[in-house]
Amino acid sequence: MKWSAIHLLTFIGLTSCVTSELTGQGLDIAFLMDGSGSVGADNFIVMKTFVKNLTASLLEFNTSFAFVQYSSGTTIHVNFHQFQRTGWENQVDSISQIGSNTYTAGAIQTVVNDLFDSSAGARPNAHRILIVLTDGQSSDTSTYPSATALADRKNITRYAIGIGNVFDSQSATDELRSIASSPESDYVFKVDSFEALDKIISSLVKRITVIEATVMRRQIVRVELQVNLTFDLNNTVVQDEILNQIKLKLQEQGLPSNTKLSWIKQPDGQIFHKKYNEKSVKEQKKSKDEF
Length: 291
Ligand SMILES: *[C@@H]1O[C@H](CO)[C@@H](O)[C@H](O)[C@H]1NC(C)=O
Ligand SMILES: *[C@@H]1O[C@H](CO)[C@@H](O)[C@H](O)[C@H]1NC(C)=O
Ligand SMILES: *[C@@H]1O[C@H](CO)[C@@H](O)[C@H](O)[C@H]1NC(C)=O
Ligand SMILES: *[C@@H]1O[C@H](CO)[C@@H](O)[C@H](O)[C@H]1NC(C)=O
Ligand SMILES: *[C@@H]1O[C@H](CO)[C@@H](O)[C@H](O)[C@H]1NC(C)=O
Prior knowledge:
This protein is of the alpha/beta class. It contains 8 helices and 11 strands. Helices cover 30% and strands 26% of the residues. The longest helix is centred in the N-terminal third of the chain and has 18 residues, at 41-58. The protein starts with 17 loop residues before the first strand and ends with a strand. The structure holds 2-acetamido-2-deoxy-beta-D-glucopyranose (5 copies). One 2-acetamido-2-deoxy-beta-D-glucopyranose (NAG) binds next to loops. Keywords: Signal.
């Protein structure tokens, strides 16, 4: 018996709980903190708190971190080698502010050259992410094109975070755009104040873990469908065909094409369980998909 599209009547309840696992290609994440004089001492501490909060949220994944500060010059305080999985909070806390000018583009160049390198503990196969924090416009904008071209060649994904109302201006926003990877909507963030950095953590975590698609997620979902009773649901060919139809439907709705779908057998050895409901018979089962 062949599966046909008209038999694919309903999918219900594809939301589910998600468990994340520490696997995948890995993420090497560098923070580039603005230590220029325009950042008040209190705000520099808030910036470090943001860096710690974001690091803490990403620690459960296959991640490594580096902490860098820029002002007139660039200081790599903690490279990927030096990052300590226990004790990293102190590593961030002990960074003291330089407090001079703002040479953001030069800092990006330094990080791309010196930090995203195996000599600094960058892992060869990990995805590379640079998060640039800035409170204002830099004095070396002409260096952006070469710095970001170099970053692109080394596959470094860049997030630009502008802090403060200076980014209400078009030219300051343009600068964030020159720092960040494109599209702007995914990689440029603006907040009104240092305190407001807190509000972007969850969306940054989501972007970093989902857009980079390096985090393997296993999701178990329960699907309820109506099928033509003449099918032999014990037939693996039929099972595969149904799964394939589900996959095609989900892909239409944005399921990444590298997702694996498979059935889960219940303790009784069966995938499908009948549900007597109204006049129709619905088959219940569980499916498992892996991202
Ligand atoms: C974590 O990422 C590293 C770097 O790409 C990779 O070599 C390693 O296999 C990953 N670990 C797991 C458990 O997937
Ligand atoms: C960048 O990514 C491309 C495509 O995945 C790959 O072919 C290339 O080797 C990568 N370059 C570096 C420097 O990792
Ligand atoms: C950091 O996390 C703490 C605890 O969740 C929160 O109170 C604080 O507002 C966060 N700060 C920043 C800047 O993210
Ligand atoms: C079930 O499938 C058979 C064969 O394709 C068809 O003749 C029958 O009308 C179908 N029944 C329903 C309820 O769709
Ligand atoms: C599949 O086979 C089992 C016995 O192995 C049987 O109990 C069950 O009703 C069958 N299911 C269907 C849908 O044919």
